[in-house]
TrEMBL record:
Membrane topology of the entry: Multi-pass membrane protein
InterPro entries named in the record: Chitin_synth, Cyt_B5-like_heme/steroid_sf, Nucleotide-diphossugar_trans
Name of this protein: chitin synthase
GO molecular function: chitin synthase activity
SUPFAM superfamilies cross-referenced by the UniProt entry: Cytochrome b5-like heme/steroid binding domain, Nucleotide-diphospho-sugar transferases
Domain of life: Eukaryota
Organism of provenance: Coemansia brasiliensis
GO cellular component, one term: cell septum
E.C. number(s) listed in UniProt: 2.4.1.16
Transmembrane segments: 246-267
């Protein structure tokens, strides 16, 4: 966190008050409100302290050269600790009237041990204000160069640190001073201060080029850091700092370009031609788990009432275990069979098959029901497979998951088309389909997979089949999926946007290249 002096000047309100001292920024908002500042005889009031807000306060905390530079300023050079410099920070010093109330001038004061300390700034100010420190002061390099080159004021930069050395030069050049007392910095460094604005304010290379030992370099640096340091160079507008911003902007532009391209390419301006009346056999698979009777009934009725010849449809429901769903009074298989009108007394034999599972759960048993279902004048053949489980299963008997239900039917058709050996359950399905319902399994060309809580629009199947008939390369296809309860809550309202983008942009864009990566499990059709 860094601020320029202009930034600090503007932060001087009671709700937010900043000040700077020797290159660092402090938030004094809460400090001003505290009581007990100053010595016992002359407490500083909040209205007096508030005058410091927005200012540089170096003059209120003077530091003597001997205390700051013990290696360079000996007791013989300054026996009474009199050498000090007004480091004011480019005419931004605190209001002079405020200094009347609160100035830490080292002096003999029997009532205040702190104010008498020559090292007040390091012993008391820095520890006392560390919780209020917010960051550092920064200076723009253009401004520093302008002050150095145009006005010959010694604002110098060493390793990106800014030092205000003009007071040191003034003290040396002042006629009344003894130079032997005031020029305590190394003479080789002082030579860099007498170039009359030559070059730039950044003298880092010259500083590093001075031929002196490490101890001398360190003692001179420590002295300047304590006496003349006022902040660092402002690099916020430099390439290193702005690189991440530029990178984020570049990524944002690329992202927006991708979205725009996907949107434009997904726009397919074509009229909706009414679908033909295809004569293709379709299996409408509905896996059921814990859905309630209303949801299952809505799905079955919507598939029955499709604008598609009923003789070419087969309603194939798979109940994944003998499960009682939340809020239901009967197991899901019983709900399905009651909807389809299956006699409760009818109990077909169980047939074995291999499930998608591990260990003993690979063995599962299913029962097959078949018949005709009528709704609003439409009669459709149906088959129901109920996974009942083995006698050893007590909890969730027969349940193997939705994937197992889908693979069960796909595996059946795979064995039908390639004349492979079948399990007892698959043989029972073949028998029911071929001899009871009267349609050879090989006749079915498409598999429509619909969840048990999904309602299908009347023309959906005709459009899907017609599209597949027009392009033999299509292996899978889907239509738009919309929410039936979009106004229920704010989360369902958000899902409307997600569903719309997923279909009209993502899938529409991918379909241009014939490589749709994902179809919705609740409503998709595949070519058998």
């Amino acid at each position: 966190n860094v601020w320029t002096m202009d930034d600090i000047t503007n932060i001087n309100e009671p709700k937010k008050s900043y000040m700077s001292t020797r290159g660092y920024v402090y938030d004094i908002t809460d400090f001003i409100k505290q009581t007990g500042h100053g010595n016992a005889r002359n407490r500083a009031r909040p209205d007096q302290l508030s005058r410091y807000a927005g200012f540089d306060t170096n003059a209120s905390f003077p530091i003597t050269a001997r205390a700051a530079c013990p290696d360079l300023v000996s007791a013989e050079r300054d026996p009474n600790y009199l050498i000090q410099y007004p480091i004011s920070g480019a005419s931004t010093n605190v209001d002079p009237q405020a200094g009347v109330y609160f100035k830490h001038m080292p002096q003999t004061d029997p009532t205040s041990k702190e104010l008498s300390s020559r090292e007040f700034y390091w012993k008391y100010f820095e520890p006392g204000m560390k919780n209020f420190k917010k960051g550092g002061v920064v200076w723009k390099m253009d401004w520093l160069n302008s002050m150095y080159k145009d006005q010959s004021i010694q604002w110098l930069v060493i390793n990106k640190e800014v030092f205000y050395l003009q007071p040191y030069i003034d003290a040396i050049q002042y006629a009344g001073n003894n130079n032997n007392t005031y020029n305590f910095l190394d003479s080789r460094f002082e030579a860099l201060l007498n170039r009359g604005g030559y070059g730039t304010a950044d003298i880092t290379e010259d500083w590093l080029g001075i031929n002196w030992d490490a101890a001398t370099r360190q003692s001179n640096y420590d002295c300047m850091k304590r006496l003349f340091y006022v902040g660092k160079v402002d690099e916020r507008q430099g390439v290193r700092c702005l690189f991440t911003n530029y990178m984020l902007v570049a990524f944002a532009c690329v992202l927006m370009l991708v979205v725009l391209v996907k949107f434009l390419t997904a726009l397919q301006f074509s009229t909706k031609t009414p679908p033909k009346d295809p004569e293709k056999f379709v299996v409408c698979q509905v896996p059921c788990y814990t859905e309630d009777e209303e949801s299952i009934l809505k799905t079955i009725n919507s598939l029955t009432a499709l604008d598609y010849q009923s003789t070419y449809k087969l309603l194939f429901l798979i109940c994944d275990g003998n499960i009682v769903g939340s809020g239901n009074e009967k197991p899901t298989p019983r709900i399905v069979l009651d909807i389809l009108g299956v006699d409760p007394e009818y109990d077909p034999p169980g047939r074995d098959y291999l499930a998608i599972a591990e260990g003993s759960r690979r063995h599962n048993i299913g029962k097959v029901y078949s018949g005709l279902y009528e709704y609003e004048g439409n009669t459709i053949p149906f088959m129901v497979v109920v996974k009942v489980g083995t006698p050893e299963e007590a909890n969730r008997s027969g349940n193997r998951g939705k994937r197992d239900s889908q693979i069960l039917l796909m595996s059946f058709f795979n064995k039908v088309h390639f004349n492979l050996p079948m399990t007892p359950l698959e043989l029972e399905i073949y028998h029911q389909m071929r001899h009871i319902l009267g349609v050879p399994p090989r006749n079915y060309e498409y598999l429509l997979q619909v969840d048990a809580d999904t309602e299908v629009m009347p023309d959906a199947l005709s459009r899907l089949v017609t599209t597949c008939m027009g392009d033999r390369r299509i292996a899978g296809i889907c239509g738009e999926t919309m929410l039936g309860n979009e106004s229920t809550s704010w989360t369902t309202m958000i899902q409307v946007y997600e569903y719309f983008i997923s279909h009209h942009m993502a899938k529409a864009f991918e379909s241009l290249f014939g490589s749709v990566t994902c179809l919705p499990g609740c409503f998709s059709m595949f070519r058998l």
